[in-house]
Amino acid sequence: MKNRNWRIIGFSILSIFVIGIAAIGYEYYQLQPKNHFSTVPVVGAKNTSGTTTKTVEDKTPVFNVLLIGSDQRQGQKLGHTDSMILVHVDLNKHKYQAVSIPRDTRVHLDGYGYTKLTSVQYIKQATQGTQKGVEAAVAAVSEFMGVPINYYMETNYSGFQSMVDALGGIEMNVPFDVTLTHPWYEENKNKVIKAGSHSFDGKMVTEVVHERYSLKNGEYGRQQLQEEALKGIAKTALSPSKITKLPALVKTIPQFVLATNMTTSDMLSLGLSAKDFDPKTQLTYQQIRGEGKKLHDDILKANNYQIVISPEQVKAIAVNFQ
């Protein structure tokens, strides 16, 4: 009788173990990109307000992600969209198309008129709240590019710093000399970062990607620095030594992110798909350039510097984001 009881207990433990393994296997199966991203939301699309989220069926894991950097500081409720990078993710080919969109791009905001892209989120946050603000920014980029946006993730400079520190720092290529004329931290005032590869902590990465006044190409130079920082983050986070720590890192993401519609599972699946990421072979990066002009801003009721971009240039780039 005693042996029989132990056999029952043994079989029960074995059953629980098998069920547990099956559950883990199912979760791993669900996290596989071809399964996980069989449906994707649409947050912003041309001719939509961006305030409602739809789900579209798509048998191939191909979608667009908007990365937003806000100038919102700790303790503040309002912020401008300071940097925008739209990424087209094709998990069939393991290819990524990325384009930086200038913050001062001239856009039309319904109910207000013409203004800078950077001001859309600020004015909507001030009048309709935080979530409406980020949705308006996403919708504005979607309409400007003429493509749907499926996911978005917004951080600010303190969040960006914390993200890099959580990785233990990154290796970043600095393509040209950078003088920190407008640092977040006073002790870095006028510090010169020479061109080349550097090991940076979060604090220094934040300083470098914030700089634009000393750069020959201004905002476009800053976009290049942001591209290099994102490459460094991706290579570090998705390296073989870090990939096993990805679930733990993803759990800490709420500390870095102001707003996102990506779930933990979305992030884990995307990370799983991009392991051993090589920016040299998998990433194509572009910039949208326009003509700087002094134009009337209908929100400010005054003239300010805006970048006018030709629709033809946008269409030519947007083909890669369909």
How would you sum up this structure, described in words?
- By secondary structure, the protein is an alpha+beta fold.
- The chain is 41% helix and 26% strand.
- The protein has twelve helices and 16 strands.
- The chain has helices at residues 2-31, 33-36, 117-128, 130-145, 157-166, 202-210, 218-237, 240-243, 246-251, 264-273, 279-282, 311-318, and strands at 39-42, 54-57, 62-70, 81-90, 95-101, 106-109, 113-116, 151-156, 170-174, 178-179, 192-193, 196-200, 257-260, 283-287, 291-297, 302-308.
- Helix 3 (117-128) packs antiparallel against helix 4, helix 5 runs antiparallel to helix 6 (202-210) and helix 6 (202-210) packs antiparallel against helix 7.
- The longest helix is centred in the first third of the chain and has 30 residues, at 2-31.
- The radius of gyration is 22 Å and the shape is globular.
- The protein starts with a helix and ends with a helix.
